[in-house]
UniProtKB/TrEMBL annotation:
One of its GO terms (molecular function) is hydrolase activity, hydrolyzing O-glycosyl compounds. This is Glycosyl hydrolases family 43. PANTHER family: ENDO-1,4-BETA-XYLANASE, PUTATIVE (AFU_ORTHOLOGUE AFUA_2G04480)-RELATED. SUPFAM superfamilies: Arabinanase/levansucrase/invertase. The keyword Hydrolase applies. Keywords: Carbohydrate metabolism, Glycosidase, Hydrolase, Polysaccharide degradation, Xylan degradation. Belongs to the glycosyl hydrolase 43 family. It comes from Litchfieldia salsa. InterPro entries: Glyco_hydro_43, Glyco_hydro_beta-prop_sf, Glycosyl_Hydrlase_43_Enz. It holds the Pfam family Glyco_hydro_43. The lineage of its organism: Bacteria, Bacillati, Bacillota, Bacilli, Bacillales.
Length: 484
């Protein structure tokens, strides 16, 4: 029986946000930041890479560490985080990795002969006289690179950071930075020397009136793809939780706002925009799109552990219509599976695409999310950060908390079983949509160890969602469920 793909698509111990997916040869590679489980900051670990054969996106392979923080001469002690990277294949056939170390505003480059080998430090994006680009007070901040080697061999670097209130000087050091929006910077074929002057192409919030980007102005997370004769710019908007796209017929031309691709709280997908209406706990988002075997996908990420610092990669299939537009897709548990999961078998609770408390979800604070959401359910794992032994689960489900899963192909389902632990005493309601009448009820009792509880169920065949809602006293941890 063919293996299934899930969301998140990597093992549950892996925390790779800001995913940039590329097909090189017959494999799909994902490059991203590398968060630490229960880390205290973003992007604390070295860069690693994962890949999968294009014909089986359930079969992910760990490629290992491809670049270490201490390899950058400006980061010999490894104290600076390496933020979201991008990778591009140069005209010389080598692979170039771009990143910034902390908020230094210096764009660093590493290079390798293979997509997932050992990258070596190559240099910094610089002017023709050798001076580092934008290294003075008052210069715009370089952040979140997106790199395109166009069909004609010309190279473009997209970068920018535009929060509403600018960047605190405590992050950028003694050199104050300006944050006006998103820029395009042409590079020589050596992949690091600037050609001409950078051009501002995306205005920040407050300066975007009349551009068509109002309400979805550029914030960060530049990414670029060329599809036939159209350039698709993917970015994180000022809303934070969503990836948006814009299109142009020129890599440096006037981009037109296209819409939202995906939200990690499913906001906007049902016409809702308030954080409190989120179907999942939201935070920043970053990713891009890729075509694999004639199917396009959007890659993005979710937050875990009640904060921003342990993010995990997600992916969904998307459709690029004949007119070039892309409709927003909903979050699912199946993602790269390209269809519903089987309606029989055991599933980890951690593949929930919706997770809320009785009072809803909300936006994690950058520093105090775990305090604000103390009484809310969340994704977590036992033990420390590692590259093995997955055991992620949903913790702290209290009265009214719901975990939702989309979708399964149900066929003659007779029984549903759950595996939970905790001091909870009550009932798990099983339903096919949020807030709908339950199709089954599972009584649970307090248990120190993970324990199975089950019930018979009568459910319609076909493509169905499943929602598990706890009602009762105490709290529980949710490890898995079984459909029989």
């Amino acid at each position: 029986m063919k293996k299934q793909a899930f969301n998140p698509y990597l093992p549950s111990y892996e925390y790779i946000p800001d995913g940039e997916p590329y097909v090189f040869g017959d494999r799909l590679y994902v490059y991203g930041s590398h968060d630490r489980f229960n880390g205290q900051l973003f992007c604390m670990n070295d860069y690693v890479c994962w890949s999968a054969p294009v014909h089986d996106l359930s079969d992910w392979r760990y490629e290992g560490v491809i670049y270490k923080k201490k390899q950058d001469p400006k980061n010999r002690l490894g104290l600076l985080q390496m933020f979201a990277p991008d990778v591009a294949r140069g005209t010389d056939g080598r692979y170039y990795l771009y990143y910034t170390a902390g908020f230094s505003s210096v764009m660093s480059i590493a290079v390798c002969d293979t997509p997932a080998g050992n990258y070596e430090f190559y240099g910094y994006v610089s002017r023709s006289d050798g001076s580092v680009l934008w290294d003075q007070s008052g210069d715009p901040i370089l952040f979140d690179p997106g790199v395109l080697v166009d069909d004609d061999g010309r190279v473009y670097l997209y970068s920018g950071f535009a929060p509403k209130r600018g960047v605190p000087s405590i992050l950028t050091g003694l050199k104050k930075r300006t944050c006006k929006g998103g820029y395009v910077i042409e590079l020589e074929k050596d992949m690091k020397t600037v050609v001409g002057e950078p051009k501002l192409i995306f205005e920040k919030v407050g300066n975007a009136k009349g551009t068509g980007f109002e309400g979805h102005e550029f914030f960060e997370a530049s990414s670029i793809r060329r599809i036939i004769d159209t350039y698709y710019f993917i970015y994180s908007s000022i809303n934070g939780h969503e990836l948006c796209y814009a299109t142009s017929k020129s890599p440096t031309g006037e981009f037109i706002y296209g819409g939202t691709l995906v939200s990690n709280g499913d906001l906007f997908v049902n016409g809702e925009s308030l954080d409190e209406a989120a179907y999942n706990y939201i935070g920043n988002n970053h990713g891009s799109i890729v075509e694999v075997e004639n199917q396009w996908y959007v890659f993005h990420h979710r937050q875990t552990n009640r904060h921003h610092y342990s993010r995990q990669g997600l992916a969904e299939p998307i459709e690029i219509k004949e007119d070039g537009s892309i409709s927003q897709v909903e979050m699912t548990s199946c993602g790269l599976n390209n269809g519903p999961l089987r309606g029989k078998g055991e599933y980890e609770a951690r593949i929930a695409c919706h997770l809320t408390s009785k009072g809803g979800a909300g936006r994690y604070g950058v520093y105090f999310g775990n305090i604000t959401f103390k009484a809310h359910p969340y994704f977590t794992q036992s033990g420390r950060d590692r590259e093995n032994n997955p055991n992620q689960y949903i913790a702290n489900m209290r009265d009214g908390a719901t975990a939702g899963y989309k979708y399964f192909m149900i066929e003659d389902l007779k029984e549903v079983a759950i595996n939970v632990r905790g001091n909870a005493s009550g009932t798990i309601l099983v339903s096919t949509s949020l807030n709908s009448e339950p199709i089954a009820k599972i009584k649970i009792e307090p248990s120190r160890n993970f324990t199975d509880y089950r019930t018979m169920v009568n459910m319609e065949n076909g493509r169905q969602a499943l929602y598990f809602t706890y009602e009762g006293s105490g709290k529980l941890d949710f490890m898995s469920f079984v459909l029989r």
